[in-house]
Amino acid sequence: MRSLLQQLSRRRPYDSASDQMRRLIDLVVAGALLTLATPLMLLVALAIRVESPGPILVRENCVGLRGRRFQMLKFRTVPHDPDRSVPLWSRKPTPLGGVLRFTRIEALPQLINVIRGEISIVDADGRSPSFLD
Length: 133
Known about the structure:
Elements: H1 2-9, H2 17-51, E1 57-63, E2 69-75, H3 95-103, H4 110-116, H5 129-132
Antiparallel strand pairs: 1-2
């Protein structure tokens, strides 16, 4: 009995046929969406660069399948604060950031996370480690 539990706990994420099928669908859909969205993503990246200094993409620490930690990519929607003098929750979005949040375009870089296998299109939201602690 114990060896069976050990084998199940060490199972790789894509062992079952349904997991493999889901991964294949994720790759095909994310690849197609990324191909179609690339021109829009380039325009958004340029607009973010022109609007305010700082990085174009931000990385958010998240927890994925079986507690594996990864960094979720998003377009930056708030002014860059390298000193972290203002808490993240109290920062106001830039004018472009408000539009990106409203239209959910800020989440398009997450397609890269899908292709890397860190998240799935079905459940694209990773969980913050602070919610799991």
